[in-house]
Amino acid sequence: MHRVRTRALPLVAMLALASCASVRFDRTTATSGTFRSSAFAFTILSWDLPQRAVDVATENASDARQPNTVATNQTVFPYLGPFDFLLDVIGVRYAVVSGTWGYADDSGPGEPPH
Questions:
Q1: Which of 14, 20, 47, 99 could connect to 72 by a Cys-Cys bridge, CB 3.0–4.6 Å?
Q2: Which tens digit of pLDDT belongs to each residue from 75-84?
Q3: Residue 17: how many other CB atoms lie within 10 Å
């Protein structure tokens, strides 16, 4: 039984790591602000768990239901350029998506500016 636990521990650790994500919203005016969403994903044989890290980060920001959410920057680490396929065999990726949300003129949707 001890051998099974020892062999299962790395698998459990990888699955737990694969589901780490966070999102933060900062208000700059009464109706707008910025956001930063990040996520980890574990890749084995081109299969991303739970899905691509950049998709998890984007969906987390979208699921917060802030109005007029616009992603302005995406970063994925590590990125190996033409050798990025090596990470599809086995690897961990970290993605950060940042941008803006809301209405910058404080008037909200459909209302004329003051």
A1: 99
A2: 999 988 888 8
A3: 13
Tokens of 88: 């599809």
Rg (CA), the chain: 19
Average confidence (pLDDT) over 91-113: 77
Strands 21-29 and 90-102: unpaired
Nearest residue to 48 (alpha-carbon basis) of 71, 76, 19: 19
Token output for 76: 């994925």
Measured in whole angstroms, the distance separating CA 78 from the mean position of its chain's CA atoms is: 14
* CA nearest neighbour of 44 among 89, 97, 103, 4: 89
d(CA 114, CA 64): 28
Q: What is the pTM of this model?
A: 0.71
Rounded CA-CA distance 48/107 in Å is 41
Compute φ and ψ for 90, nearest 5 degrees. Answer: -160, 130
Q: pLDDT category, 94, cuts 50, 70, 90? A: very high
The letter for the amino acid at 77 is F
Residue found under tokens 């890290």: 53
